[in-house]
């Protein structure tokens, strides 16, 4: 049996989902709480296999409750079940230690399947959440690429965007041609591009040059 507790201040949602889960042959709801503070205490006392957690609650919200549970019990598996897809809810909840993220608009059967999947070590995310995470990771990766350039490398990238060859860059910066080539090679590597043209396109795409 997969032991579950449900922490949610929406009584109708909590009762309805709990009833459906308890009707499953492999799941039983062993506890319910209607606020975050009570939920934290219950989770640490009962140590269920899965914790279903609402986000917006009285006394203590789900993000803080998740953080406190994970701090004291790192192995806890917490599934967020909420109505919110806002960035200020999604990212803090996952960063606090939530394993999966579901919406209350999901069917009870989908929440039951999420319980099973999370119990077996999988991560279950609503498609919208997956899209948000991928977009954030992609943006972070792209931003980190040019932020890793040194001041000298940024200077050389701007000269490359002006169409300067390696020798012209060396002459303008009063450095050896070999040093200029090393810097160019480093720039290409850090930006993850194959040649000077792609590096210049990157610079224009990210508004590094006009």
UniProtKB/TrEMBL annotation:
GO terms for biological process: phosphorelay signal transduction system; regulation of DNA-templated transcription. Residues 142-207 form the HTH luxR-type domain. The keyword Transcription applies. One of its GO terms (molecular function) is DNA binding. It is found in: Cytoplasm. Residues 3-119 form the Response regulatory domain. It comes from the Bacteria. InterPro entries: CheY-like_superfamily, NreC/VraR/RcsB-like_REC, Sig_transdc_resp-reg_C-effctor, Sig_transdc_resp-reg_receiver, Tscrpt_reg_LuxR_C, WalR-like. The modification 4-aspartylphosphate is found at residue 54. Keywords: DNA-binding, Phosphoprotein, Transcription, Transcription regulation. GO terms for cellular component: cytoplasm. The keyword RNA-binding does not apply. This is LuxR family transcriptional regulator. It comes from Peribacillus loiseleuriae.
